[in-house]
Sequence to fold (328 residues):
Amino acid sequence: MKHPQPDPLLYRIGALSKLTGIPVTTLRVWETRYGAFTPEKTSGRHRLYKEQDVLRAQLFKQLTADGHAISTLANLDLTQLSALRNELRSAHMSRVQQQLDAQTVTMAVVGLGLAGRIESTKFTLKFLSHAIKVSDVYTDLAELAQKPLQGEPNILLIKVHVLDDAALSLVQTASQQHPLLQVIVIYSYGMEVTLALWRAQGWVVRREPMSDEDLAELVSSVLIVDAARSMGGLAASSLIPARRYDDAVLAQVAGMSTSVLCACPQHVAELILQLASFEAYCHSCLSRNANDAHLHAFLASVSGSARALFERALEKVAEHEGIKLGGV
Fold:
């Protein structure tokens, strides 16, 4: 004797929205405009969605967040949608690994004690923005003069006891022979007049004592300031991309009416404007007040990173809406 099969579990659109985190208005647009779902309907015209509709909606959410237009996804079945999601996951992991590799800071260090601090676990944990690779280690500047740099370091980090003319000449020679992002000098003693001469070379010069945390923040601020100075493009050593959209483009989007059933395009454009403004303010603080450079470099990094993420979000909204964005 055959037993009747149980009815499949059905969900109303409100339940589907709660299960997937997708607004009801968006689900309706996906269904009516793109035919993404074909729900059953009760005699009272209420939509009833199946379990596979829940899975489809979840995949739609993931894939549209990664930049795919719902119009290209709506007619795919579950197998095709899952395969596309797996491809995106693999590509994402590859990009993550590339970003991690790109965030490795290579240093040449003069001073055995300083090199030990840089390579210690304690210092590395405080240096959150990048991985650290020490390419060259020298006992002192005399050894650096005899043995040229073997690797291709981003930063030359030097410990000297006294800022004198002999040390200045040796550091000048080393910095001229290699294309370095920055020279950082940590010293113990030096007169104000001599210190000004060292800083006039464009080097970052700081006096001991300096904690591991302060040293890590100093290196981070050097990289962030370099990114701020290279706003014309993204160099290999830069942390924050340059702005992609100017104020005029963003203001146009902020005042534009779209077919999206919410004000997301306007809000995203307004957020980018605010973040870019604050980012520019932090950069101006960096140049005005050297004593607060670490704090403002950190704030510039945070606001710039957020601005770059929202620019990516704006591109996805624009693609969905067919809006043409003019770049900087």
The CA atoms of residues 232 and 242 lie 7 Å apart. The chain has three domains: 13-100, 103-229, 247-321. The chain is about 55% helix and 10% strand.
